[in-house]
Amino acid sequence: MVRRIAIAMVHEQEPSHGGVPFRNFFQQTPQVLQQPPYKLYDKVALPLYPAPAHRKVSLRLILTSMGAVPCDAGPLRRRWQLLRRHIAVARLVWRRPASRDSLAEASLSQEPQQMVQP
């Protein structure tokens, strides 16, 4: 959450798969996660229903909330989603602090390449 990673909230509805009433989550979640800056429950959890037809719809909604696009989406839309994922990963990598020692070692270990003429 500190790194702005999106969390997909899913609520299992089937008791045999571990589903419980949603109010149990509110009661067991620490207050610090329910308040700013985290606000864990600001987004509505997507229900995961047990009936096969409903479960299929639920899974599609969950995947869509995670950035998936349908296979029949045009190539432009798929490329746009891929670009968004690359940008998100680049932001995470960019925010990771690098130590000065590791940067110095990396620059010393790289030797200049010589041009070879045919």
What can you tell me about this protein's structure?
This protein has 118 residues and is mostly helical. It has 2 domains: 1-65, no CATH class; 70-96. Helices cover 47% and strands 5% of the residues. It is built from 5 helices and 2 strands. The chain has helices spanning 23-28, 31-34, 52-65, 75-95, 100-109; strands spanning 10-12, 46-48. The chain has a two-stranded parallel sheet. It is flat. The protein starts with 9 loop residues before the first strand and ends in a 9-residue tail after the last helix. Mean pLDDT is 78; it is low at 106-118.
Helix count, per DSSP?
Answer: 5
Instruction: Look at the structure and give the mean pLDDT.
Output: 78
**Backbone shape:** flat
Number of strands: 2
The class by helix and strand makeup works out as mainly alpha
Major sheet: order of its strands?
Answer: 1-2
Q: Unreliable stretches, pLDDT < 50, 5 or more residues?
A: 106-118
Q: If you compute it from the alpha carbons, what radius of gyration comes out, rounded to the nearest whole angstrom? A: 22 Å
List keywords for this structure.
mainly alpha, 5 helices, flat, disordered C terminus
Give a brief rundown of this model.
This protein has 118 residues and is mostly helical.
Write the layout of secondary structure elements.
Blueprint: E1 10-12, H1 23-28, H2 31-34, E2 46-48, H3 52-65, H4 75-95, H5 100-109
